[in-house]
Write a structure and sequence with these properties.
- There is one protein chain.
- Strands 2-1-4-3 form a four-stranded antiparallel β-sheet, with helices on one face.
- It contains two helices and four strands, in the order ββαββα.
- It starts with 14 loop residues before the first strand and ends in an 11-residue tail after the last helix.
- The chain is of the alpha+beta class and 131 residues long.
- The longest helix is centred in the middle third of the chain and has 13 residues, at 52-64.
């Protein structure tokens, strides 16, 4: 008997949010050294899929777009050649609300913390990334 998928793992409107992990790798670095430093990105995408399996597959395909394994970026300052490496998915979450052009909650986190801690998360307008 197949286990029933919990409601928290379903998207009623077919939208999903995935966080993808990608990094730069230079042509001459020691790939056996996992302590080497690199530039890395967390890329958050939203995608449409009928279920979590399809959402996972679409997120993986999206992450692999343009990652052909070639060292096709050259840093003009150092003349080093780099390539993008898609490491994988760190998060895949369903969106529980209908997408609305005036705003839709797509992801939430819940923590039990002090009010002081909550207030410390708030930034002034000019401190936000978009400004």
């Amino acid at each position: 008997m197949k286990n029933k998928i919990k409601a928290k793992n379903k998207s009623p409107y077919g939208w999903w949010v995935a966080t993808l992990i990608e990094r730069w790798e230079s042509q001459n670095e020691d790939i056996s050294n996992l302590n080497r430093r690199c530039i890395a990105w967390t890329n958050t995408i939203i995608l449409k899929a009928k279920d979590r399996e399809e959402a996972y597959q679409k997120a993986m395909e999206y992450g692999n777009l343009g990652n052909d394994g070639e060292f096709d970026f050259v840093n003009e300052n150092s003349n080093k050649r780099y390539r993008a490496v898609f490491e994988g998915i760190s998060s895949l979450l369903p969106v529980f609300e209908k997408i609305n052009e005036d705003g839709t909650e797509i992801v939430f986190e819940e923590e039990y913390v002090t009010v002081r801690r909550v207030k410390s998360w708030i930034r002034k307008k000019e401190e936000l990334e978009a400004f």
